[in-house]
Specification:
OB fold (Dihydrolipoamide Acetyltransferase, E2P); Rossmann fold
Length: 265
């Protein structure tokens, strides 16, 4: 296998990149939070934090309790995940390539000193200063563009349109507390149907469609946190279990950036 690449973050967009790099022969180590808040959990390697192993489209990610265990997992042909929000393992590993795929819309500590070549996905980073390369994550004509000087498009807070439906398809927590899910990913839900409860507060579907993602049952949410995503297309149920077109596009750009750097371009 090729060299090891460290990826900070294991959400659904990050998983597209991790999956592509692994399939291209790289050993991949994912660094995650202790309690990640993924929505599209069926296609997010960060779920290995809770489940120990997660398989997405034939690639398995396994949680490790130490760097030694992580190395064994990677050598066995799987993706390794380590709970390390601060990225302290980077100093020991000294990877040649590090990718910030947290998608926090701001820099949570990644810098060019962490590896020989650093990549960040989305806004919050300046290419040539914070990292070497930034990948555009905004849907549209520039999605996946490699930026070597400057920044990605600022976050608009408005999700991409699906069948003409934009912000209405994304649900945010109406209150703080532990969520109790009434419906699961891939279920068809009707508009105004209660799909979860946060304490005594119901979370109602804003549109009818397939529940493409919902935060883990029992997760302690804060008011305003994104907690669910509904796809208004009834025919797209299988998409709940596959990497999205957006994630695949970004993944291809990351792989291009890594290989171009390896070739000295």
């Amino acid at each position: 296998m090729k060299q090891m690449i460290v990826v900070r973050g294991g959400g659904d967009i990050a998983t597209g990149t991790i999956h592509r790099l692994h399939r291209a022969g790289y050993r991949v180590l994912v660094l995650e939070l202790e309690n990640p808040s993924a929505i599209r959990r069926r296609v997010a390697f960060c779920e290995a934090v809770f489940e120990n192993t997660v398989t997405v489209e034939g690639v398995t990610c396994r949680r490790a309790d130490s760097l030694a265990a992580a190395n064994q997992i990677m050598e066995s042909g799987e993706v390794a995940l380590l709970v390390d929000a601060a990225g302290t393992a980077v100093e020991t590993l000294k990877p040649k390539v590090l990718i910030d795929a947290i998608l926090a819309k701001k820099n949570l500590g990644t810098n060019r000193r962490m590896a020989e070549f650093t990549i960040a996905l989305g806004p919050g980073f300046s290419a040539g200063q914070d990292v070497d390369c930034v990948i555009e994550t905004m849907r549209g004509h520039l999605l996946g563009r490699l930026i070597y000087e400057g920044q990605a498009t600022p976050n608009t807070g408005v999700p991409g349109l699906i069948q003409g439906v934009g912000k209405e398809r994304v649900l945010h927590a109406p209150a703080a507390g532990r969520i109790k899910n009434a419906r699961d990913i891939s279920d068809f839900v009707e508009k105004d149907e209660t799909i979860a409860m946060i304490g005594e507060t119901p979370v109602k579907a804003t549109v009818s469609g397939i529940l493409r993602g919902i935060i883990r049952d029992g997760y302690p949410v804060t008011a305003g946190l994104k907690i669910a995503d509904i796809d208004p297309r009834k025919s797209e149920k299988e998409n709940c279990f596959t990497i999205s077109d957006k994630a695949r596009c970004i993944a291809g750009s990351v792989l291009e950036a890594v290989m171009a750097w390896e070739c000295g371009r």
